[in-house]
Specification:
It is found in: Golgi apparatus membrane. It holds the Pfam family Exostosin_GT47. 34% of the residues lie in helices and 9% in strands. By secondary structure, the protein is α/β, with parallel strands linked by helices. It folds into two domains: 173 residues, no CATH class; 160 residues, Rossmann fold, CATH 3.40.50. The protein is globular. The N terminus is likely disordered.
Length: 427
């Protein structure tokens, strides 16, 4: 009998089949056994995950890192130690997988796909290849990671929508462990605004799989949302490596709070979105308080990355309205220039919400009340309180950096803890 993953079996043992006739008494007894088992499991779960008396539990309001700079994670529901085994499919072992990573002609490189909004597809894959939690044995794996750079491939003409759909179906049909679990232990990354909708047949094939995405938006005007809290994980956006570097100085450093020119800024395109258009108009009315330059993505007036971060750091508050979806990368970028983010997106879901108390490091303001009252409120916040939020934000921002899981704090560690939580919750 082959073991697939800690108690699961790939093949059933042979033998004669027995036909059991269950009467009402048997049914009642079985139900009572199920209830008792459930209650006992809950009690053991509380006992197993309760922190030691000498180590107080970590609440979202508590410090995220200890004195050594290591990440502190709550025991409840996660376990006290990371103990995962993740199998990473090789691009050559499944026919079609290389096309999802390199395009139909194999000419798209991982390096060219590592930047921009879809860079997390590359970074998470490369970090898992080097992870101490990686296993080369499928039979002992808790999770299976399916690498794909499909958003980048599509944007660069490597595959069209029809080819993406056909290739995914071909790839999944060749994975016996995917069929065995119905895909529930297989992990996919979909970082763009389209989310899993890039794979048109996701609702048929990935309805039980774990999707890593920054797109926790269930109001995207699609018939069916591809994000589900019970199985999927919100991940941070892909901030420029020059700002999140663990080694050396960032390309742009924060400006001391009293020397910043503006109360707030909005550095983004209007995109015809109501909230963004209101901010552009507000900046025209109060140019000494709110900076909102017109961003050019191409041409001689294009704003370079250094100029962008220099603008971003010159305000106390960085406004983050929703765009095509509920989140914006500026929310994460603002932490690295120590500008307090102001969330102007009512339905946004952020990463690691069980651990981080976002009210201590950011401000949430109703998108329907974007106007002078927003600036008045921001002006009323004492500088000491802003400094306090910035200080706490310094602790949290390591969770936005895609660094190896050997680092004391990183986005990868946060994702691994969330995967372990999924493992424990499904029993």
């Amino acid at each position: 009998m082959g073991s697939v993953s800690r108690g699961r079996t790939l093949f059933s043992a042979g033998g004669a089949h027995q036909i059991l006739v269950c009467g009402r008494a048997h049914q009642i007894g079985a139900l009572a056994l199920v209830v008792a088992t459930f209650l006992l499991t809950r009690a053991l779960d509380r006992l197993y995950f309760a922190p030691a008396a000498s180590s107080p539990s970590v609440s979202p309001a508590a410090a995220l890192v200890d004195r050594s700079g290591s990440l502190s994670w709550p025991h409840r529901g996660y376990g006290s130690v990371l103990s995962l085994k993740i199998y990473v499919y090789e691009e050559s072992e499944v026919e079609g997988l290389r096309e999802l990573m390199r395009g139909r002609h194999g000419k798209i490189s991982a390096e060219s796909c590592a930047k921009g909004q879809w860079g997390t597809q590359v970074k998470i894959h490369q970090l898992l290849l080097k992870s101490k939690f990686r296993t080369l044995r499928k039979e002992e794996a808790d999770f299976f990671f399916v690498p794909s750079y499909v958003k980048c491939v599509r944007m660069n003409g490597g595959l069209n929508d029809k080819e993406i759909n056909q290739t995914y179906i071909k790839v999944l049909s060749q994975m016996p462990y995917f069929r065995l679990s119905g895909g529930r232990d297989h992990v996919f990354v979909f970082p763009s605004g389209a989310g899993a909708h890039l794979f048109r047949s996701w609702a048929i094939f990935l309805n039980r799989s774990i999707i890593l995405t920054p797109e926790g938006d269930r109001t995207d005007k699609r018939p069916i949302s591809s994000f589900h809290t019970w199985k999927d994980i919100i991940i941070p956006g892909n901030v420029d490596d020059g700002m999140t570097t663990f080694y050396g100085s960032a390309i742009v450093l924060p400006i001391p709070l009293p020397k910043r020119k503006y109360l707030a800024n909005f550095l983004g395109r209007a995109q015809g979105k109501v909230g963004r258009l209101k901010l552009v108009e507000l900046a025209k009315r109060y140019p000494e308080k709110l900076e909102s330059p017109e961003l050019q993505l191409s041409g001689p007036n294009k704003l370079g990355r250094l100029e962008y971060f220099n603008h971003l750091r010159n305000a106390k508050f960085c406004l983050s309205p929703r765009g095509e979806s509920s989140w914006t990368l500026r929310f994460y970028e603002s932490f690295f220039v120590e500008c307090v983010p102001v969330i102007l997106s009512d339905r946004v879901e952020l990463p690691f919400q069980n651990v981080i108390d976002y009210s201590l490091i950011s401000i949430k303001w109703p998108s329907t009340r974007i106007g002078p009252q927003l600036l008045e409120y921001l002006e009323s916040i004492p500088e000491e309180q802003i400094e306090s939020m910035i200080k706490r934000g310094r602790e949290a921002r390591c969770l936005w950096a895609y660094a190896p899981d050997t680092e004391p704090c990183s986005a990868m560690l946060g994702i691994l803890w969330e995967l372990q939580r999924k493992w424990w919750s499904r029993g």
